[in-house]
Design brief:
Keywords: Membrane, Transmembrane, Transmembrane helix. The chain is mainly alpha-helical. It has one domain. It is built from 6 helices and no strands. The longest helix has about 40 residues. It is elongated and about 55 Å long.
């Protein structure tokens, strides 16, 4: 668990902190975990893993993580999403350095929930992409 999460619980929470923690945890589980990762990102990345397996290429293989995320050899929409999301996430992470406790820990806990959901979703989709004959998700390549 994140240091910021554990240190947040060293502070005495008031009712608003608990309400914020529960609401933000559910928000991140639903919007980041379910809607973001499970419904969109994980199936596309798994489809790109399958695409790389089925159509190997030296450059794509050497830069497989970057290819699978969608930084190159992707349609215009996927390229824009990959770069905008990366920049946006980097800015949000940077701005969290100025967030005091316990709010920083509350946010970090929500992010951990969303990312954990996303990681599990990715592994399930990757397993399906690599083991099933049909995988009906687009790798969003040109």
């Amino acid at each position: 668990m994140s240091h910021h999460v554990t240190s947040a619980f060293e502070i005495s929470f008031n009712l608003w902190h608990w309400i914020a923690l529960v609401l933000f945890a559910f928000f991140m589980a639903y919007y980041e975990g379910f809607k973001g990762f499970q419904k969109k990102y994980s199936p596309r990345v798994a489809a790109r893993v399958r695409y790389l397996r089925d159509q190997p290429d030296t450059l794509r293989s050497l830069l497989a993580p970057l290819f699978c995320i969608g930084y190159f050899h992707a349609n215009k929409k996927t390229l824009i999403k990959a770069y905008v999301l990366t920049i946006g996430i980097a800015l949000l992470v940077r701005s969290m350095n100025y967030c005091p406790q316990p709010w920083r820990g509350i946010v970090d806990l929500g992010v951990m929930i969303g990312l954990s959901w996303g990681l599990i979703a990715f592994w399930i989709f990757a397993y399906k992409a690599l083991t099933q004959k049909e995988f009906n998700y687009s790798p969003e390549t040109p």
